[in-house]
Amino acid sequence: MVLPYQMPFDVKGRFGPLKANLDIPEMDIDGQVGNVAVTAQGKLLEGQLTVDIQIPKASTADVPIELGLRQPVGLTNLQAHLVAPLFRKQSQPLPAEVTIDPFRVILHFGNSAIHVSGKGTPSRFSLTGDSSSLSSQDLPITLPVHQPFSLEQLQFEAEIQGAQFTLQSFEAKAFDGALMSKGILDGSSFSLEGTFKDFLVEPLVKAVRPSSLSITGVGELEWKVSGVASPSKMPELQGPVHVTIRNGAIIGFDFLKTIEEALQMSGALGKSTGATQFALIDAKTVLEKDGLNIREIIVNAPDFSVRSAGTLGLDHSVNLKGTLAVPPSIAGKITQRFPLAQVVRQEGQLVLPFVVKGTVQNPVFRLDTKSLGNQVKKKFEKRLEKVLKGDKQELQKLLNEGKDLLKHLFRR
What we know:
Blueprint: E1 9-15, E2 24-33, E3 36-45, E4 48-59, E5 74-85, E6 99-109, E7 112-121, E8 124-135, E9 150-161, E10 164-174, E11 177-186, E12 189-200, H1 201-208, E13 214-215, E14 218-228, E15 239-251, H2 255-263, E16 275-288, E17 291-301, E18 304-313, E19 318-326, H3 328-337, E20 345-346, E21 349-358, E22 363-367, H4 369-388, H5 392-411
Helix pairs in contact: 4-5
């Protein structure tokens, strides 16, 4: 009986014949530890133990301590060839460490399985693994997802050296995209970098964060993050993350209608489609302790383009500032409502500053009137400087535009 867990064990076998030099040319042992059967066959020659160990079937449920897993992990067909120095003769130097080569096992997670093989020593051990399909709902830990997903054609290479686990390569298919990553876990701290290319955005977003909005398109993700792992809470991540989505739509959100509401021009920009089509969303961000620092977001759409920067807090607060550029067809309607906006036209486009405040669930978009006023002031100052230098054409142009602006202002 193994104490203090009250786990019964039973061992039987044979070895021999015992030689005068303590060599044992044959050993054959069968053991039963709890519900786990173990067999070992080998020999002890010149102080060196060579043994083949097999465990047909076992599970983490057989371990007498609580591992904190959502569901048990099973293993089958464990095979290991072990060479270990037990004692040394003066005439025969022996290696200092135990070596295991090869090591093979099949890990079972629910209905999913991973084939693992390895070799090395207890101080430095190499592992490789592969799986045709691994479902998230089969994993023994709880992931922050709302819909299950699968990793297909999974392959990895790793090395364990002391307390450090190095993921040398990880590749898999998911959401029709190619996932590649590598990283290091050293004690409780870790670093991870990788890419996720050509994945379908809509099913990924639904799996991670269900919402009344739906985003379509093909995405690409790059990251290089670090943090501290904790069994009791989600790790705090830090580092750059770059997201790109091409040729998609935000279904359930019409950005032009948001512009209308911000400018109090209901219906002026056309009938609502209930969606926002875009050619590109490009977001360069940095994960920080307090949330997400958005260095730059670029959105290119048929009816507008946006550049913005700001923060998303861990409390879901939003704080963004940027510029909105619209084509002449829309610019004309806006300048009819806001004549002063004509001054900030750039090569036919109307470029308006904006801010977004509020929360992720309820963002509030509005014009940045302070920034707009500063732009108008600078434009007039430059043109007035030309007039003061004697530019008569600029004077006449300024007078005509001023007269038109006054008419619009007083009419409204």
